[in-house]
Design a protein that fits this description.
Number of domains: 1
Largest sheet: 6 strands, antiparallel
Number of strands: 6
Radius of gyration: 21 Å
Structural class: alpha+beta
Oligomer: single chain
Distance between the termini: 62 Å
Number of helices: 7
Strand content: 15-25%
């Protein structure tokens, strides 16, 4: 039997890996559509309930193209951003030691939805230097198994990649956890030394360009609940 030619090897690799990545990507797109639906339903429900309490509190869903959606609640905005590429878990990830991935390495390829928290005023006043924070990222593979890496409950409730599968109900739970975290993630007064200097341009700017962030001047640790 002749050894396959380089062209045949290329075709076979493309056939396996490219089709797999298309499957992962298409499944992620379907889940992101579900996420947008959940976000809009949540915003409409909360806004209707808030009207009777205080009309000053704004709760709003905004869609920004195919790959991004915003949920504003009071002074916070959560940005849900679907990445257009497919990723593989790094070789050092402990998931490779599980039978779920060792039996089929293709299960280790995932699409990612990143979740960022910004201050609503950063967008309202076009403060382009303000900081936002990734509070979670969702991994979903072609078989619809998912996990979330993130802060506090986002990181430890939704970390069973082997057994958890995405559904509208689970999507709602993840989003609710992200909202609860953002509400509790308050704006700290930055260290005096960090803000004691200001430029004429910042003073004269109508956009209030002085940099602001919830943890400006503090360390925001990716792998810890501490900030």
């Amino acid at each position: 039997m002749e050894n396959p030619t380089a062209r045949e090897l290329i075709f076979n690799e493309l056939k396996e890996k490219a089709i797999l990545k298309q499957d992962v990507y298409n499944n992620l797109k379907l889940n992101f559509k579900v996420m947008k639906t959940v976000l809009k339903e949540m915003a409409d429900n909360l806004q209707d309930r808030m009207k009777s309490q205080d009309e000053r509190v704004k709760i709003e869903y905004r869609e920004r193209g195919e790959y991004e959606a915003h949920l504003q609640f009071a002074g916070d905005i959560l940005i849900f951003q679907m990445h257009s590429n497919v990723f593989q878990f790094d070789p050092g990830n402990s998931l490779w030691k599980t039978s779920y991935l060792s039996d089929n390495a293709n299960r280790g390829f995932c699409g990612i939805i990143n979740i960022y928290n910004f201050l609503a005023d950063s967008f309202k006043y076009n403060r382009v230097n303000d900081s936002g924070y990734m509070i979670g990222r969702m991994f979903i593979n072609a078989e619809n198994h998912f996990m979330v890496q993130g802060k506090r409950q986002l990181g430890f409730i939704y970390n069973d990649f082997i057994n958890m599968t995405m559904s509208k109900e689970n999507m709602e739970k993840v989003i609710e956890s992200a909202v609860l975290y953002a509400i509790d993630f308050d704006l700290f007064t930055p260290p005096y030394e960090r803000v004691q200097e200001i430029s004429i341009a910042e003073i004269n700017s109508t956009a209030l360009t002085t940099r602001t962030g919830k943890r400006l001047g503090f360390t925001f640790k990716a792998d810890s609940d501490e900030v």
